[in-house]
Amino acid sequence: MILKTVCKSSMCAGCMACIDICPRGAISIEDSLKAYNAVIDADRCINCKACYHVCQENNPPPFSKPLYWKEGWAEKEEIRRKSSSGGFAAAIEKTFVRQGGIICSCIFINGNFEFIFAETEGEIEKFAGSKYVKSNPAGIYKKIKELLCENKKVLFVGLPCQAAALRNYVGEQKDLYLIDLICHGSPSPKILDLFLQDHGTSISKIAEIRFRVKNHFNLEAKQRAFTVPVIYDNYTMTFLEGISYTENCYSCKFARLERITDITLGDSWGSMLPEEEQRKGISLALCQTEKGWELLNESGLYLSNVDLMRSTACNSQLRHPSVKPRQRDSFFENLTKGKSFKTAVFKCFPKRYLKNMLKAFLYHIGMIRDDAGGAKYTR
Questions:
Q1: 3-state SS string over 40-69?
Q2: Of 22, 45, 68, 378, which is least surrounded by CB within 10 A?
Q3: Please, is 138 exposed, middle or buried when counting C-beta atoms within 10 Å of its C-beta (0-12, 13-18, 19+)?
């Protein structure tokens, strides 16, 4: 039996808008590690095509070129310090709730990366930190539409595909503000769980997780690092190498300079600002609308001019999707055969894997230190 899917096979981004809009509950998401598929139950389907039309893969919203582009950081030092980058997102969110608005963004809770709503500055703290894994927005589309019908102002912060799906779901709304995050691609949460199993735990057993601190990328859970500071852990390495993303990410329609949101946020890789400021974190913002520009200007940010050509050169996802590595098929083949995560990584990167083992040994016996060139990510 050939399964019917909402969009082209293996091109599902997991935005979940089709689940929210289906009046019969006829759609489920199948996660094969390598790809997502939004599968339609033919017995329940009434052929209304609502799922097809809301799908951002089938119907991407209109794109707009940035009107303004800036780099900088939150003027409040505490906000900047707690943020992965320069704190633009947190500062904007705090300003928005102070003005009576509602934020919708992603948190990690009960073993899931899901979306919640925040109406106070204290609640916004839960959104802090980058999340290098697929999140689940199911349910938020209906809720946001309800809030907009009640004349509430809503700010959504998420991935480009999720923001695009929300625009399709609710249409143009003056009280809806959209911020998308520059995205390289995202793996299934099952990939993260397989990595954690290598270390004797699972995604359901951890309460907190952290993927990076400023320019230093490494996974930490339960206040535990999974490797020494001078090398990347295996999950982080596969993410940065781009082999663990779901299939759709390599043909992402939103990896371009033109965007579909009010504001696009990311790291200002390649910044010409002083090294001291770069260590503290510098954000990049592209504004596509005047209401996005107004939001940026009233949020207590230090804003500096930035060379857009340099920023796009240093942020490849502002030019094209991630390129699928040749090792990707081998990686997933080994995982689906039941091999451990570390074995799958070794098969893909044998020389680097052995080199990392040597560096870890030398670190443990004190022959190399963190300041000798740790796992710092730059572009």
A1: ECCCCCCCCCHHHHHCCCCCCCCCECCCEE
A2: 378
A3: middle
Region of 206 (left: φ > 0; alpha: ψ -120 to 50; beta: rest) is: beta
What are the tens digits of pLDDT across the range 217-234? 999 987 788 999 999 999
Residue 63 CA: distances (Å) to CA of 178, 288, 308: 13, 9, 18
Element (H, E) at 77: helix 77-82
d(CA 105, CA 127): 7
pLDDT tens for 30-86 read 999 999 999 999 999 999 999 999 999 999 999 999 999 999 999 999 999 999 999
CB 215 within 8 A of CB 377: yes
The C-alpha angle 192, 56, 296, rounded to 5 degrees, equals 80
Please give the angle made by the CA atoms of 118, 260 and 280, to the nearest 5 degrees. Answer: 60
Note the pTM of the prediction, 2 decimals.
Answer: 0.95
Residue type, 168: N
Distance CA 16, CA 202 (A): 24
Q: Which two tokens stand for residue 311?
A: 């920023």
Q: Are strands 36-40 and 283-287 parallel, antiparallel or unpaired?
A: unpaired
If DSSP codes are grouped into helix, strand and coil, which group holds residue 94?
helix
Distance CA 203, CA 323 (A): 28
Q: Which helix (H) or strand (E) holds 196?
A: helix 189-198
Angle between helix 341-348 and 328-336 (nearest 10): 150
135, 106 contact by CB (below 8 A)? yes
Enter the tokens of residue 160. 């480009």
Tokens of 193: 């769980």
Pairing mode of beta strands 176-181, 154-158: parallel
